[in-house]
Amino acid sequence: MAIDPCDWCEEVLQPFLDRELTDTEMREAEAHLDTCSYCRKRYRFEQSLRRYVRQIVEPMPLEMKARLADLRLEL
Fold first, then answer.
1. By Cβ atoms counted within 10 A, which residue in 11, 14, 59, 69 is the most buried?
2. DSSP string covering 6-56, please?
3. Rounded CA gap, 21 and 14, in Å?
4. Whole-structure pTM over 0.70, yes or no?
């Protein structure tokens, strides 16, 4: 059974933002974000949220980072 590319992208979004993926996974995620407006919106939201949180709390406690990673927002 094939994995839905949007489901995969959502699963790897936090590691993608943390630059924890392999080079191949990074390229795959970037390629998907280039072609999928839905996932690109989620990516931009997560990126903005991280920027906002960094302005409030520097450095971000690991517990808060983990809690944010667990959040799911439907757009």
1. 14
2. HHHHHHHHHHHHTT-S-HHHHHHHHHHHHH-HHHHHHHHHHHHHHHHHHHH
3. 10
4. no
9-59 pLDDT, tens digit per residue, is: 999 999 999 999 999 999 999 999 999 999 999 999 999 988 887 777 667
Check residue 20 and give its pLDDT. Answer: 93
Q: CA 44, 50, 52: angle at the middle one, nearest 5? A: 100
Domain residues of the chain, as ranges?
Answer: 5-70
CA atoms within a 13 Å half-sphere pointing along the CA-CB vector of 5 = 14
